[in-house]
Amino acid sequence: MADNKPLGGKILTKPFLVCLVILAIAGILLIKRLIFGVGSVTNLTDGYPWGIWIAYDVVVGTALACGGYAMALLIYVLNKGEYYPLIRSAILTSVFGYTLAGVSIFFDVGRYWQLHNMFLPWFSQINSILFEVGVCIALYVLVLWIEFTPSFLEKWKTEKYLKIANKFMFIFIAIGILLPTMHQSSLGSLLIIAGQKVSPLWQTNLLPLLFLTTAITMGYSIVVMESILSSLGFRMPLETPILGKLSKIIPRLIVFYLVVRFGELIYRGQLGLALNGDFKGFMFIVENILYLIPVVILFQSKNLTKPRMIFIAAVSMLLAGSVYRFNAFLVGFDPGPGWHYFPSFSETMITLGFISIEIMGYLYLVKKLPVLPVLRHT
Amino acid sequence: MDLKRRDFIKGVACSSLLLAADAPSVFAAEPRKTLSSDALGILYDATLCVGCKACVAACKQNNDMPPDHTTEEKLYDDPIDLSGKTLNIIKLYKHGAGTEKDNETGYSYIKRHCMHCIDPSCISACPVKALTKNPKNGIVEYNKDACVGCRYCQLACPYNIPKFEWLEAFPQIRKCQLCSHLIKKGKISACCDVCPTGASLFGNVNDLLKEAKRRLEMKPGEENVFPVASINSKDTTARPAGKYFQHIYGEKEGGGTQVLFLAGVSHEKLGLPKLSDRADAAVSEGIQHGIYKGMIGPVALLAGLLFTVYKNTKKDDK
User: Fold this and answer.
1) B109 DSSP β-pair partners
2) 8 A C-beta contact, residue A3 and residue A375
3) Alpha helices, DSSP H, located in A248-376
4) Sign of the dihedral defined by the CA atoms of residues A96, A102, A106, A108, in that order
5) How far is A17 from chain B (nearest CA, A)?
6) Helix, strand, or coil here: B193?
7) Residue B158: which of A112, A170, A196 has the nearest Cβ?
8) For residue B257, what are the β-bridge partners?
9) CA A97, B3, A143: angle at the middle one, nearest 5?
10) In whole angstroms, what is the distance from residue A310 CA to residue A251 CA?
11) Structure letter (DSSP) for residue B231
């Protein structure tokens, strides 16, 4: 436990202040949304009822927040205790990613004052995939905060409560692995009911498996990326050996994913759509090139000792997974002739506002709580 | 300790246990909803429609919907499509000069509103039972007190029917409910009630299907008798049969709908989506139920996780 220490230091740094300004703008726009409706700040239409608030804040955002989940799989299921130093910061980003996804949903839905209906048994519609996703994400936010409590308890030096927390933590860790397995796969399943509105390049009955696999892979990639960024940002030694080892998992998961993805497209005879020269085909190619970059980099073991290479590989994987999700939900989604969607300025600013809170929260908590590993090298 | 390929595969297998649990049944078809013998619906026959839009006005009046202005002057109710203010609309298909009615190279009207699917995607999508199918007459109804405004119904509907009040602080989803409030009083849907030509015909769906099949067999140009307003009404009109495109749209589309379309032009040209005979809801729910197996899958996985995590955290403590 003593592996993690608060970093200390000034809170009101330049990046923090920039985030604060963006947040202020987003706040004003959110007030406008509450008074004049969702349509007053977004480019959403009846044809494109879901835009970047769902595609980015929830579908991409929670996948980017899968670090805690992916690391828990590795440490507690595969019993790789050596990665333990990385879990706390991974959980912290998961806490923020998921909490903010929850907050953004509150502003996205039209009848937010009734959002609790999702949890009332007489309103529950158990065949709805969105019901499952919503309930799982809400529960997981709760579980993540519980998983993060030891950081607070250590800070406050409450030995007694820390002991109790640690004793029962295995229950929350187990639930914390179950819930993302369920909702990350179901985020993909959400699109199945949209049938022919989703291009055959993305519409497949294997969406749950593809979404789950990329979520886990994005989880490892975000841990790698964030660890390197934190080390550079806070001027700490790089964790290259452990990150290099962690990075070895990434290309294997991607190869598994690509075999399933392309095998299925060839089986359905739809792969040709990638080459017919339209925007969808182009984005499909971009998406898959981004998957191939980390495969090429990380299968060469000499690159595993180079922070720059594993960083590029991790970022490419994160982009690949994000573009895949954007493609499935927005680029590949076509409700019929006459409908167009491109996010508005206000809509984008509000999303940037949510990202800003995440960054500010992270910057604040790693300085105040024992989150980041300060070990071995010091 | 090096992370071996075997361990990694084990990891993937473990985390996707839910998916792999019962692979063959994942795609198994489920017994789905079928057309109820009391199902109510509408048969719209484009060859009888004269485009008077009396149905659009009657719909607004009987459902307390505000006018929808799409021109600068805001003089008339002039919707160009369905919206949160318009639940029923008559649209025009036109090819070239478009002089001959009910012809691919001419023009045709088409009426659009909720299709009242037999196995509706919107109901399967809705997380809070805001959309429900009346067990007796099959009308797809909306309850604003349940709705959270997530708009997944809009994403799910292959016909893009549910509409959202985008510029309201307290918005609702709006769509045709077949005037269920009038039906409760023993009346029929307003659009059919006012239709002067019988183009919109209200009735039991099985009767409407029979009527649609009868029309497809008519000889074009030959005088025939057509019921007006309701299939049960004594009010009829005699006129030459149209030249029908030989397909009843809605009989099988997406598992079938309670609104049926006949036209002289192919339905695809009229903007109706080409759908397979199975409901997307059946596919989606089939996969989800296959994966979860009545929550047995998740419970088993949780038990396995609790055991493994407990074992592995205990070891770390020592």
Assistant:
1) B92
2) yes
3) 249-267, 279-298, 307-326, 345-368
4) positive
5) 32
6) helix
7) A196
8) B117
9) 30
10) 11
11) T
Given an 8 Å threshold on Cβ–Cβ distance, is B19 in contact with A209? yes
Q: Is B94 helix (H, G, I), strand (E, B) or coil?
A: strand
How does strand B140-142 pair with strand B163-164?
unpaired
User: Quick one: average pLDDT of B285-292?
Assistant: 90
Q: Are strands B236-240 and B223-227 parallel, antiparallel or unpaired?
A: antiparallel
Widest CA span of chain A, in angstroms?
Answer: 64
Residue of A311, A297, A301, A312 whose CA lies nearest to A230: A311
Residue found under tokens 């979860």:
B292
- Alpha carbon of A3 to those of A373, A376, B315: distances in Å? 5, 9, 18
Cα separation of B252 and B250, whole Å?
5
Written as six digits, the tokens of A341 are 């969607």
Specify the pTM: 0.92
pLDDT tens digits along A294-346: 999 999 999 999 999 999 999 999 999 999 999 999 999 999 999 999 999 99
B45 CB-contact burial (10 Å; exposed 0-12 / middle 13-18 / buried 19+): buried
Task: Give the C-alpha separation, B69 to A18, whole Å.
Answer: 42
For A182-221, what is each residue's pLDDT tens digit?
A: 999 999 999 999 999 999 999 999 999 999 999 999 999 9
Give which of B288, B291, B299 to mutate to test A binding, by max A Cβ within 10 Å. B288
Burial classification of residue B150, based on how many CB atoms lie within 10 Å of its CB (0-12 exposed, 13-18 middle, 19 or more buried): buried
Determine the Cα–Cα distance for residues B109 and A231; give it in Å rounded to an integer.
66
pLDDT of res. B292: 87
